[in-house]
Amino acid sequence: MARDSLMIIGGQWGDEGKGKVVDLLSAGFAAVVRYNGGNNAGHTVRYADRRFALHLVPSGIIHDGVTCYLASGMVVDPSGLVAEMDTLMAEGVAIDGRIVLSPRATLILPTHRALDGAREGTLGSGKIGTTGRGIGPAYQDRAQRRGLRAHVLADPQLRARALALMQQHNRELELLFDAAPVDLDDALAELEGAAARLAPTLGEVGPALRRHRAAGEAVLFEGAQGVMLDLAWGTYPYVTSSSSLPGFAAASCGIGPKLLGPVIGVMKAYATRVGGGPFPSELEDEVGVRLRERGAEYGTTTGRPRRCGWFDAVAARFAVEVAGIDAVALTKLDVLDGLETIRVATAYRLPDGTTIDTFPADAELAEQAEPVLTELEGWSAPTAGVVREAELPPAAAAYLRFLEETLGLPIVILSTGPRREETLIRGDSALARELRALIAGDAPPAAL
Ligand code: IMP
């Protein structure tokens, strides 16, 4: 890979299919890095007939020779990480020495999970619909400067330090939320068991990435969630508690922005979101149901049905701008096969009659926005599995052109099915040529 690094991020509300894209490319990289969020993410990777649901471990893990890093800006549930390592080992993936956990990452404790559920329980119709993994409470502790960081996993004082914080959490559960406290004996046993397994994985991420670069090895950054779930730029407060923008990778890894590469924004050919919050192009009719069923739109992490809607070009253009996306990877085009008409939200109409074409800061306003829809012709010939541009039905090709013009960016990767082979690298840009070379040089993962 001529590039020093490449960034793959979600350009919508998460679940765009980043796992497949990262997996497709990662064999060409020495390092794959997760830098935000925690096990709220669910990245599905398929190889041959096998399907891996990864939540914390970067999707590069199934390729031998790729080292996987979990950077300081993450929140890491120790027992969740151990469970994922066990699953990978049971599947025959050699993980020894290939997972590196930043000692500065914040730990998620069982009491954080309880606080997440208890807080959601008080929000009524304003529920965020979190994944219940304790993400928000752990980031809250990080910002409050009372969280535990991963280096304590190797600290003889682990028990005392975790006990003090969890006792505080239990008081909050009882006093603030009238909720049952967590059994701390169980919680400590869970934590100590995981600590013994994870202590050997601790390692500073920034210096390791600099070593990769000094050796001429390329680094792939795997963003979790999506721009519209970013803490600052998403549909606040219906967002996650970390930044899902590519710039956060520099801060999270401690490397400075110069090591960050071009940004590929992964977007679905339509839109989905899980949990509460504004979704102007949402379809609550039979087309929405059809997208959910054909697209298997159920959460990888929670199994919840995803809300489905038309591609939202207002939100997508906003994401392109705030995240500095350079090119798009469009996934799940095949899910639109057979629809007579396809629509795209190109502006929003507000209750006062005005029309806007950028995403408003106020989620309540976004909630009231009606989409202005542009109609495009659908196609009946299947795009599922198509890997040559010329084989795309003309209306599908026109849809791609429309999206490219609307976003002002090339769709450089087109995914027409869940398997790695069902992918088309488009055009003749320098990036497209590099991506083709990366995939062509991809040996099957030796560990499988
Ligand atoms: P949390 O990150 O668990 O606090 O959840 C906050 C919001 O982000 C909820 O609407 C979740 O459904 C959503 N969310 C968090 N992680 C993901 C993800 O990886 N994919 C899609 N939605 C997510």
Low-confidence stretches: 443-448
User: How many strand elements?
Assistant: 19
Strand percentage lies at 15-25%
Question: In order across it, which strands form the biggest sheet?
Answer: 7-5-2-9-1-10-14-18-19
CATH homologous superfamily name of the largest domain? Answer: Adenylosuccinate Synthetase, subunit A, domain 3
Class inferred from helices and paired strands = alpha/beta
> Over the alpha carbons, how many angstroms does the gyration radius reach?
22 Å
Q: How many DSSP H or I helices?
A: 13
Total number of domains: 2
The main sheet comes to: 9 strands, mixed
Mean pLDDT: 94
| CATH architectural designation of the largest domain | Alpha-Beta Complex
Distance separating the two termini: 24 Å
Overall geometry comes to globular
Fold-level CATH name of the largest domain: Adenylosuccinate Synthetase, Chain A, domain 3
Written description of the protein model:
- The chain has 13 helices and 19 strands.
- By secondary structure, it is of the alpha/beta class.
- The protein has two domains: 311 residues, Adenylosuccinate Synthetase, Chain A, domain 3 (Alpha-Beta Complex), CATH 3.90.170; 93 residues, Orthogonal Bundle (Adenylosuccinate Synthetase, subunit A, domain 2).
- The strands form five sheets. Strands 7-5-2-9-1-10-14-18-19 form a nine-stranded mixed sheet, sandwiched between helices. Strands 13, 15, 16 and 17 form a four-stranded mixed sheet that branches. A two-stranded antiparallel sheet has the order 3-4.
- The longest helix has 20 residues.
- It is globular.
- The site of inosinic acid has 19 residues, from helix 4.
